[in-house]
């Protein structure tokens, strides 16, 4: 049996630093023995298959090691199965996300968010921006009516504040990644 996974790389190809060409990313993933390797955009989104169901956390660590060897710098990777990604899309608490995908995000976490850290954020102070924690605590959904650039909420939903690694994608990218994973 083969399982499809999505790998999301954090902090690459931004501002000319930490360059990870998608052709090289595909080469690294193929070199690890993964199949049907495809990438989406230049921001570090990949889909691949692996035999049997493997733990996404272990896959992420394996990919991180290989990327560090290939590029010479660390890259944080968060992995979800296609099924997990499908559940993330289905559970979106913001019904208008499809109409304004650039103003809606999903922050994918390497583990469960620390509830105490999230409870310390008073959402009323950041309106109209808002966020919701997914049932499993490994994703945060964000809604930013005035855009992400000026939001005072986004820095509070950062990996340093959450206590786990995190990488954020806008809703359009999330749905395109799911479509790629389901091909």
Automatic annotation (TrEMBL):
Pfam families: DUF1697. InterPro entries: DUF1697 (IPR012545). This is DUF1697 domain-containing protein.
């Amino acid at each position: 049996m083969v399982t499809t996974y999505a790998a999301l790389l954090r902090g690459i190809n931004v501002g000319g630093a930490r360059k990870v060409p998608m052709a090289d990313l595909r080469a690294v993933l193929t070199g690890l023995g993964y199949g049907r390797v495809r990438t989406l955009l230049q921001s570090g989104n990949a889909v691949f298959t692996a035999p049997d169901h493997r733990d996404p956390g272990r896959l992420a660590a394996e990919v991180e090691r290989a990327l560090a060897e290939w590029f010479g710098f660390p890259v944080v990777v968060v992995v979800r199965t296609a099924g997990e990604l499908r559940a993330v899309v289905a559970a979106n608490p913001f019904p208008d996300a499809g109409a304004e995908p650039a103003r809606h995000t999903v922050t994918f976490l390497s583990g469960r968010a620390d509830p105490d850290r999230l409870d310390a954020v008073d959402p009323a102070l950041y309106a109209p921006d808002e966020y919701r924690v997914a049932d499993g605590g490994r994703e945060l959904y964000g809604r930013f009516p005035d855009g992400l650039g000026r939001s005072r909420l986004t820095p509070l939903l950062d990996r340093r504040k959450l206590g786990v690694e995190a990488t954020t994608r806008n809703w359009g990218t999330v749905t395109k990644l799911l479509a790629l994973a389901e091909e």
